[in-house]
């Protein structure tokens, strides 16, 4: 993955992070070897901080892969659970092993399947939703998430800057054009969204935060009403 920041700045930021433990280190080695795109350590650290800050007790994650980001979040939870969805059964199986090694398995409920099909049928409500799969579906996921988010709920979306392609449009393969344009449209929507207040953090491959706008936000004059 191309770093969004200058390499020396990127290295400097990474060097300021706490040292990951053996499980996290092993996972990163495995992910690099098998070309699985897991969160950068600084994004894992941010997730951990956000879960602690929001005291999230019910979390939904789209895109488990081998469970790296899940462990960062689980470690910030003193109680509650994370429901995490992964399309590929072999990745989910490996994630289950890592959850045991990291002693967080009791907090995690895994679902194997296509989030595009599962999402519309979810009925629980969540304090935090982490989107990290099917990047072309982020807009749809945001729409589904609206009713699933608890008041003051937070959505975190990863890889929103797509290696910087959203600005230089110098993406490698022609077939990715629609995908990149779709993400650009999604980012453009941040200016005018009535349902969420949004913020972009250019950390890792780009993270977006979304706060659900409530009806009474209108009365305060801070933001306009949503539904
Ligand atoms: N969150 C993980 C990385 C996820 S990578 C971490 O940072 O550690 C994205 C994962 O989403 C891949 O493992 C991929 O198999 C899965 N995925 C892709 N499309 C999906 C879909 N439609 N539904 C569920 N999972 C999907
Ligand atoms: Mg990601």
Provide a concise account of the structure shown:
By secondary structure, the chain is α/β, with parallel strands linked by helices. It is built from ten helices and seven strands.
Catalogue the ligands: S-adenosyl-L-homocysteine, magnesium ion
Radius of gyration over alpha carbons?
17 Å
- The CATH superfamily is identified as Vaccinia Virus protein VP39
Question: How many DSSP-defined strands?
Answer: 7
What share of the residues lie within helices?
25-40%
> What is the overall pLDDT average?
91
Query: Biggest sheet, strands in spatial order?
Result: 3-2-1-4-5-7-6
CATH domain class: Alpha Beta
Question: What is the chains' assembly state?
Answer: single chain
Low-confidence stretches: 220-227
Q: Which series of helices and strands comes N to C?
A: HHHEHEHEHEHEHHEEH
**Number of individual domains:** 1
| Separation of the first and last Cα atoms | 38 Å
**CATH topology category name:** Rossmann fold
Strand content: 15-25%
Shape: globular
The class by helix and strand makeup works out as alpha/beta
CATH architecture: 3-Layer(aba) Sandwich
Count, helices: 10
């Amino acid at each position: 993955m191309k770093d969004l920041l200058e390499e020396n700045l990127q290295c400097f930021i990474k060097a300021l992070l706490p040292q990951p433990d053996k499980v996290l280190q092993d996972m990163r080695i495995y992910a690099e070897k098998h070309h699985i795109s897991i969160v950068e350590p600084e994004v894992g650290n941010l997730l951990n901080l956000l879960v602690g800050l929001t005291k999230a007790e019910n979390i939904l994650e789209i895109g488990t892969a081998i469970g790296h980001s899940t462990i960062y979040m689980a470690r910030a939870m003193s109680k509650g659970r994370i429901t995490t969805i992964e399309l590929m059964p072999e990745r989910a199986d490996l994630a289950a092993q890592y959850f045991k090694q990291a002693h967080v398995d009791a907090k995690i409920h895994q679902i194997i399947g296509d989030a595009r099909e599962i999402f519309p049928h979810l009925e629980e409500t969540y304090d935090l939703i982490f989107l990290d799969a099917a990047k072309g579906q982020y807009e749809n996921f945001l729409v589904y998430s609206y009713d699933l988010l608890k008041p003051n709920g937070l959505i975190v979306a990863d890889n929103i800057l797509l290696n910087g392609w959203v600005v230089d449009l110098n993406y490698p393969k022609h077939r990715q054009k629609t995908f990149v344009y779709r993400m650009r449209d999604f980012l453009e929507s941040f200016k005018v969204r009535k349902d969420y207040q949004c913020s972009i953090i250019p950390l890792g491959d780009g993270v977006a935060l979304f706060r659900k706008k409530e009806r009474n936000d209108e009365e305060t004059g801070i933001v306009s009403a949503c539904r």
